[in-house]
Design a protein that fits this description.
The complex is a heterodimer of chains A (471) and B (316). Helix content of chain A is 59%, strand content 7%. With 471 residues, chain A is an alpha/beta fold. Chain A is elongated, with a radius of gyration of 34 Å. Chain A starts with a helix and ends with a helix. Chain B is of the alpha/beta class and 316 residues long. Chain B is built from 15 helices and nine strands. Classes of the chains: A alpha/beta (471), B alpha/beta (316).
Chain lengths: 471, 316
């Protein structure tokens, strides 16, 4: 029966560990958890180094994941080792001189740190500290643990001591209010100890939070970033944002990189085979296959780079270039007052440098859609459009009251396969003020509000779908 | 697992030593991976830069376990006819001809069509039977009586479909041949998959394997490898060489020199009777460790500095 209890306990440790690993952004499936159980059964818990290697083999499946796994393993087992060490000390505890009736107060007065930690770990397990998810729960769990450890008894002891001192010696009360001062009375000592206990408990809770809570708080943060308007993002979120975009792009790439094979040879085309073999007396000698055409899809992204549109453009281009394995022919153009091709900037540099380049070249000018469309035609890009080209235009359609030149957009419409217009403005603003979007809209196959990462993700996903489906 | 196999995989040190005797110096993580994968009978997916000894690991495993080594080199367009089995068409044709000759005897005496069909059905259908199967590497590995080491090399070069096709083998150690049914491995093979990470492998595949990442070795390990593989190398030159190569790996290059390149270089230097590295020698032989013109130019510019650094490493 002892063995059974032990196994249950170990499994709990492993399950907690797997949760901590997931929190460290390592993807662990159920099958991999079972592998981890097999590894632990085989290797045991004693040899930490082998255990670390073994669990790493079963759980972390890329070099980056290995690094994160290693760090998480060290942090997790440092915490476990702490509590185990204290457990060992448990036998050595001896009873000191009795000053108060309360157990917790006694422990604090003895300053027996290791015993205190044992009790704290027990209390933490009792209140289920491993379920902590959000940083807002810190106070709650700290309180619960302290109460579990017998805080009420301690408070009572403090009150009692204060009362005793207050009636006995007059000056005791004055010192009692100042915990840092040399506590002449027992009450002051106890108060100081209570403050220390609070700090220690809070430390423990924070450590566990960083171990177990990071998964949920990351999900929360990423969810928020996905939904918030790109134009309103805080500077400090930029780094996180870039990571998130890379992550989403990777997932999209994985999703779409499965290409059906043998696309150039289909099923037997019976009709054409028969016709072709009339000459052979109807004996089917030359076979004719139904062919599927391989069209090379092209994507041209034309981005307005003024103000808030630029932020969206930055992420759109980041997506498009991250997907270059799938969208093999992507060209990008940027404009505000005039239009330039930016494909090379983005291919050669990382996104930030590229955006800076582009902003220096064409940014900070009043937007002029008509002039930019003229540029597009003059530079001969119109002639490069063909029936395989998908044109993505990103812009708010605010022309500063200049001629919108919707006729050029019409021409683009006629020459390309489709035009998709992404508008960072929400629908109620369309067509208000100097927005000419309603005049452009008839020539677009799709016109949609795109101003959060979530919108962008959905759009790029659909784009890849339609582009590939038509190929 | 056979007892003799279990004995060989009994502990990590035994594996490290056994591999070292065969000339493969492995780090602790590699030995642990062999230890755990061998005992849990799970496939290992080995990833890492080219030339760090991924394929060699499987070779050494086969020698160490004294098992036949079956290798399947992956490439684009690899399909199950080349990986698993194929029918022996010529033999099948012969069989039908024999059947035609003998059909009179077989059906002897049957009067009606129905009666002759009945008689024909009494004979087993040999046309799609084990005799006519030409086994390819995967089926061969399943059929080895005493077990085997199966190396699926450079899985990242194969198509996605092939990856999916492997899943049954990796998790159940069995394959399905439509005409014959499911064939289970007589004894589970030790499976190694290698990948150079030219593309991301599917999660399904990764989930079924233990994952071992083999990085470039640390200086100490690389020295041990050199000592095992090129024993005639002097200690001083070896240390200098390793320090130099480790220095080159710090640079921003298209392709970093790998262990196999270090070994080639050591052998080349032995042929040239070199006793220590100097600027000229390095420049003349740089093409052994670097495979791109741009890389050679980059290292060439810093050759002297690297040589000086490697000399310092020896003195220490």
């Amino acid at each position: 029966m002892d063995g059974g209890a032990r196994i249950g306990e170990i499994d709990k440790t492993l399950v907690n560990f797997i949760r901590a690993v997931r929190g460290a952004d390592v993807r662990v499936s159920v099958a991999e958890t079972l592998d981890a159980v097999a590894v632990v059964d085989f290797v045991g818990w004693e040899d930490r180094e082998t255990l670390k290697q073994g669990l790493g083999l079963a759980v972390a499946k890329t070099p980056e994941e290995k690094n994160r796994f290693d760090a998480c393993f060290d942090a997790f087992f440092a915490a476990v080792a702490d509590s185990e060490e204290h457990e060992l000390d448990e036998d050595e505890r001896d009873d000191g001189p009795v000053d108060t009736d309360d157990k917790l107060a006694q422990m604090l007065l003895d300053a027996d740190q290791s015993e205190l930690m044992v009790v704290m770990e027990e209390a933490a397990a009792e209140v289920g500290l491993e379920n902590i998810k959000f940083f807002t729960q810190r106070g709650l769990y700290t309180q619960r643990i302290m109460r579990q450890m017998g805080l009420e008894g301690l408070d009572a002891a403090i009150r009692e001591a204060q009362a005793g001192e207050g009636s006995g010696q007059g000056q005791g009360q004055g010192d009692g209010g100042d915990p840092s001062g040399q506590g002449s009375g027992e009450a002051a000592t106890l108060e100081a100890a209570r403050a220390r206990l609070f700090e220690t408990t809070r430390d423990l809770v924070e450590k566990r939070l960083s171990l177990y809570g990071s998964e949920t708080s990351r999900d929360l943060r990423e969810g928020r970033l996905r939904r918030s308007r790109l134009g309103n993002l805080d500077r400090r979120d930029q780094e996180e944002m870039r990571r998130l975009v890379a992550k989403i792009a990777k997932r999209l790439a994985a999703l779409h990189s499965r290409k059906p094979k043998r696309r150039n040879r289909g099923v037997l085309d019976l009709r054409r085979t028969m016709r072709r073999n009339y000459a052979n007396d109807g004996i089917m000698f030359d076979l004719e296959w139904k062919r599927k055409k391989i069209a090379k899809p092209k994507v041209m992204a034309i981005c307005d780079v003024s103000g808030s549109v630029a932020t969206v453009a930055r992420f759109l281009l980041q997506f498009l270039y991250a997907l270059h394995d799938i969208l093999n022919d992507v060209r990008s153009f940027a404009f505000s007052g005039k239009l330039i091709e930016t494909s090379d900037f983005f291919k050669r540099n990382d996104v930030d440098t590229a955006v800076d380049h582009v902003m220096n070249a064409v940014g900070y000018m009043p937007t002029d859609y008509g002039h930019s469309f003229e540029n597009f035609r003059e530079l001969g890009f119109l002639d490069e459009l063909d029936k395989r080209t998908t044109v993505v235009i990103l812009g708010d359609g605010r022309t500063n009251n200049t001629d919108p030149r919707a006729d050029i957009l019409k021409e683009i419409h006629e020459r390309s396969k489709r035009i998709l217009w992404l508008n960072p403005e929400p629908p109620p603003l369309w067509g208000t003020g100097d927005s000419e979007i309603l005049r452009y809209r008839p020539y677009c196959h799709m016109h949609r509000e795109v101003n959060t990462l979530g919108h962008l993700e959905r759009f790029v996903n659909e784009l890849v779908h339609v582009v590939k489906a038509s190929s | 697992m056979l007892e003799q196999h279990a004995a060989k995989l009994a502990d990590i040190d035994a594996i490290t030593n056994g591999f070292a005797e065969l000339g493969y110096i492995c780090s602790k993580s590699i030995a642990t991976a062999i230890f755990i994968a061998g005992n849990l009978e799970k496939p290992i997916l080995v990833e890492g830069p080219a030339g760090v000894g991924k394929t060699e690991l499987a070779n050494t495993m086969a020698q160490f376990m004294d098992l036949p080594m079956i290798r399947l080199q992956c490439y684009e367009g690899l399909d199950e006819a080349k990986a698993l089995y194929e029918w022996r068409y010529a033999k099948q044709l012969l069989y039908t001809q024999i059947l035609r000759d003998k059909i009179g005897e077989v059906l002897g005496g049957a009067e009606t069509l129905a009666a002759s069909m009945d008689k024909l059905h009494q004979h087993s259908d040999l046309f799609f039977s084990e005799q006519f199967v030409a086994p390819r590497p995967l089926l061969k590995a399943m059929r080895e009586e005493g077990g085997s080491v199966l190396l699926i090399d450079e899985i990242d070069k194969a198509d996605h479909e092939f990856e999916a096709f492997l899943l049954e083998i990796l998790s159940e150690f069995q394959v399905s041949i439509p005409e014959l049914g499911t064939i289970k491995a007589k004894r589970k093979p030790f499976v190694f998959l290698t990948s150079n990470n030219t593309r991301e492998l599917s999660d399904a595949l990764k989930r079924r394997c233990l994952h071992l990442y083999v990085p470039f070795p640390e200086a100490k390990l690389e020295q041990q490898i050199l000592r095992a593989r090129v024993p005639e190398l002097t200690d001083a030159l070896m240390q200098q060489l390793v320090a130099f190569v480790q220095g080159v790996r710090e640079l921003d290059l298209k392709k970093h020199p790998s262990v196999s390149e270090t070994l080639d270089w050591a052998k080349a230097l032995m042929l040239l009777n070199a006793s220590e590295l100097d600027g000229d020698l390095v420049r003349e032989t740089l093409n052994v460790i670097l495979k791109f013109e741009e890389d050679i130019t980059v290292v060439d510019r810093q050759a002297l500095e690297l040589v000086r650094m490697s000399e310092k490493a020896v003195r220490r």
